[in-house]
């Protein structure tokens, strides 16, 4: 492995958790940018924004300059806002289509 591709394991993560990070990050990246061709300024709805792939997708989409709308449970709404969601939607209490309006991209 080239040294520039290796980073230290964060102390708070177990080895199993740290090993999972690249897989979920790569899955989110591929869905957003390889298959989805997401661009800055687009509006994206991410279902499950606090989940494994979802939380990575929220951060990557926000970093790319997209307007991020994410569904999550009530307990996770603050979390998805903290990681970059512009709008957090409680999927148990709100119909997401009434909140989002038109979007350019949906990640489920």
Order of helices and strands: HEHEHEHE
Instruction: Return the CATH topology.
Output: Rossmann fold
* Average pLDDT score: 93
**Rg result:** 15 Å
| Secondary-structure class | alpha/beta
Q: List the strand order in the largest sheet.
A: 3-2-1-4
Tally of helical segments: 4
Describe the protein's topology.
Elements: H1 15-35, E1 43-46, H2 52-63, E2 67-72, H3 77-82, E3 87-90, H4 96-100, E4 105-107
Parallel strand pairs: 1-2, 1-4, 2-3
Tell me about this structure.
This protein is α/β, with parallel strands linked by helices and 108 residues long. It has one domain: Rossmann fold. The protein is built from 4 helices and 4 strands. The protein has a 4-stranded parallel beta sheet. The longest helix has 21 residues. It starts with 14 loop residues before the first helix and ends with a strand.
Quick tags:
alpha/beta, Rossmann fold, globular, 4 strands, 108 residues, single chain
Structure summary:
The protein is α/β, with parallel strands linked by helices. Helices cover 41% and strands 16% of the residues. It is built from four helices and four strands, in the order H-E-H-E-H-E-H-E.
């Amino acid at each position: 492995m080239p040294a520039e591709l290796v980073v230290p394991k964060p102390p708070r993560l177990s080895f199993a958790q740290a090993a999972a990070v690249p897989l979920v990050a790569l899955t989110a990246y591929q869905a957003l940018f390889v298959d989805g061709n997401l661009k800055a300024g687009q509006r994206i709805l991410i279902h499950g924004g606090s989940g494994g792939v979802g939380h990575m997708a929220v951060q990557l989409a926000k970093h790319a300059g997209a307007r991020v709308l994410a569904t999550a449970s009530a307990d996770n709404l603050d979390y998805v806002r903290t990681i970059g969601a512009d709008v957090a939607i409680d999927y148990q209490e709100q119909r997401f289509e009434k909140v989002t309006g038109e979007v350019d991209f949906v990640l489920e």
